[in-house]
Write a structure and sequence with these properties.
The structure is a single chain. The chain has four helices and seven strands, in the order E-E-E-E-E-H-E-E-H-H-H. A hairpin with a 2-residue loop joins strand 3 and strand 4. It has one domain. The strands form two sheets. A five-stranded mixed β-sheet has the order 2-3-4-5-6. It has a two-stranded antiparallel ribbon with strand order 1-7. With 179 residues, the chain is of the alpha+beta class. The protein is elongated.
Length: 179
């Protein structure tokens, strides 16, 4: 769990710099390994807490173009607001399972000692995982640049079949009897 201690902190800006093992974040993608490095600022103003920062973690990925394993640092930006109000917390916990208010603030009880950023970090890291996973040495290259032997303009291409002529690669299909 990724928690920031908030009990009895003064109003103003507070620097946050934490390192948390990946194993402590439940249901995080299995590609992530090592530690999650959380850096940012926690602003307290009355009953409101706002965390703005980033979470960085390394991921072990497989390149979509070459099937080579590589490691990439994934960074996720966070901007989370909390409102400490026991009455609203009790009302929201009875009526709705999600404790977010209409203004996208997460409602917590006034007596809470910690702000739990675990689910927000898990979600942001999941969204920050690249859809197309390309190793650094292949970034910006086309498939034909990496594997020229498979390009349509390759010299190793088979002979062209003239119109009306049957390609001899299909000949074994003629021997199949259906009845």
């Amino acid at each position: 769990m990724i928690k920031i201690y908030i009990q009895s902190i003064e109003d103003g800006l507070h620097d946050i710099d934490m390192s948390i093992p990946v194993e402590e974040v439940v249901e995080l993608y299995p590609e992530y390994f090592g530690n999650i490095h959380l850096v940012g600022k926690l602003r307290k103003f009355g009953k409101r807490y706002t965390f703005t920062g980033s979470a960085n973690c390394k991921a072990a990925l497989v390149c979509d173009m070459s099937l080579k394993n590589f490691t990439k640092e994934i960074s996720a930006n966070l901007n989370v607001s909390y409102l400490a109000d026991t009455f609203l917390f009790q009302m929201s916990s009875h009526s709705v399972t999600n404790k977010k208010s209409e203004s996208d603030e997460i409602i917590i009880a006034e007596e809470d000692k910690y702000i739990d950023l675990t689910s927000e970090i898990r979600e942001e890291l999941a969204v920050s995982m690249p859809m197309k996973r390309v190793a650094p040495e292949y970034e910006g290259k086309n498939f034909e640049d990496i594997y020229p032997q498979y390009s349509p303009n390759s010299q190793t291409k088979k002979k062209k079949v003239k119109k009306g002529e049957i390609d001899d690669r299909w000949a074994p299909l003629k021997k199949i009897k259906l009845n």
